[in-house]
Amino acid sequence: MELVKLQIEEEIAIVTIDRVKSMNALNNQVYEEIIAHLEAIRANDAVKVVILTGAGEKAFAAGADIVQMVGQNAMEGRHLAWLCHRAAELLETMRQVTIAAVNGYALGGGCELTLACDIRVAAENARFALPEVGLGIIPGGGGTQRLSRIIGIGRAKELIFTCDQIDAQEAYRMGLANHVVPQAELMDYCRAMGKKIASKASYAVSVAKASINNSENVDLPSGCAREQDLLGLLFATHDKGEGMKAFLERRKPEFTDF
Fold this sequence. Notes:
Layout: E1 4-9, E2 12-17, H1 28-42, E3 49-54, E4 59-62, H2 66-69, H3 74-93, E5 97-102, E6 105-107, H4 109-116, E7 119-123, E8 127-129, H5 143-151, H6 153-162, E9 166-167, H7 168-174, E10 179-181, H8 186-198, H9 202-215, H10 220-234, H11 238-248
Parallel strand pairs: 2-3, 3-5, 4-6, 5-7, 6-8, 7-10
Antiparallel strand pairs: 1-2, 8-9
Helix pairs in contact: 1-3, 3-4, 4-5, 5-6, 9-10
């Protein structure tokens, strides 16, 4: 049974976690299917943007499947963590821009998947939390690492230690959500954003994404030196020449790289 659906709409891929009856809970199969879809998308030059969402109106993903986890031993738990991290790594590092369309509860592993996306758009009914310490474990899909980078270490510690849920507006205030929109408008909003991004020079966007990601791991001088190298690289591309000529000629550019 397929638990994750893939839909390609021109330059946008929509990946939907589809376990509505279990609030889109994340088990091994779900993670494996997310990974398989993302790996296929990563190799598809026609796709510029990925939207990750959950089926139904209640949950993006209400965390890892506790029915599965309760009986797992240490090695099985470690493998589950590897699957979580692999899915998150793909979202974070693939050349396509990734958008989380958070249509409801994003708890535990679901929240961690949103943290790995480049952009998070929350429906008004969305709620975020990392409740793992209340279950005797810790966030295992990058939550202890990425949350603090997005909202700051003090706020990240509080959310992880207390297991508190925050609503969409609080997530926006903290910088966890880029935008909050009515649920009925969520996918159209994300599609419109995806089309806007896809209209830009995709290779340049992918290089910008890599440069921003690199800034998390190096000091400022090293990051700036890397940025200079990447800018120089882009001066050798078709899209650099096309974009600048189109600007001077007051016409829409026809980008072809990636």
